[in-house]
Amino acid sequence: MQVVAERCTGCLKCVDYCSVGAISKVSGKRLVEIEEDECVECGVCKRSGVCLTDALFQPELAYPRRIRAEFSDPSVPHPSTGGGGRGTEECKTNDVTGRYPRGHIGMACEMGRPGVGARLYQLETVAMALAKLGVEFEKQNPVYYLYEDPKTGKVKEEVKNEKVLSAIIEFGTTPDKVPAILETLRQVQKEVKTVFSVDMCSLIEPDGSIPVEQIAREAGANLRPNGKSNIGLGRPRFNFFGSGEESGSPGEKEEQR
Are 32 and 23 in contact (CB under 8 A)? Predict the structure, then answer.
């Protein structure tokens, strides 16, 4: 995003709409400026409509800067998935997508947040630490296409310094690997100067127990359990129960995030 200086009146109304604090007043002038290296191209300032002189200008974005908009502006689709925003259904829609069957754990690291954002080299630091544990990164997540090598979690060199509002590292694993993954994330958080949260999901067992909750508690994780039933996302496309037809009660198809 850029400012057309000739149109700007310095009213400062757009400043409060910047999701990463990249807009500021130019000292001694009735004018604002955008620090382009900090801007994540989310488009919120322009879409807010607060600029009455149309001084905010969105230029055409070329690769790799366009990646910022793909991960920060929900109106810009990801070329790899066709989805907007962060571009992934992620593990919380497991009841529809069936990515993680019984006996498997879906996990995700949500890098960045409004007000902070994240650089892709920070995402790489976390991904490379996870890759050493043999996790399988989700191919239906646009982050997958940022990797130079998905087996190592290394991100393409030309995109490393791009800043996005938020991006999700998604991967599948098995219950026995979860404690080591959580410990690795505890250690790597010391190296990453942005906020990130960890998501975990598993199918609820027939007796109502939640495997991932027990595993996480035993590993010393501070949990915020969130039951989620995605009603309205469509007919489940996956059979968790092994037969050729859909089966099981709605409760059995729920998952824990």
Answer: yes
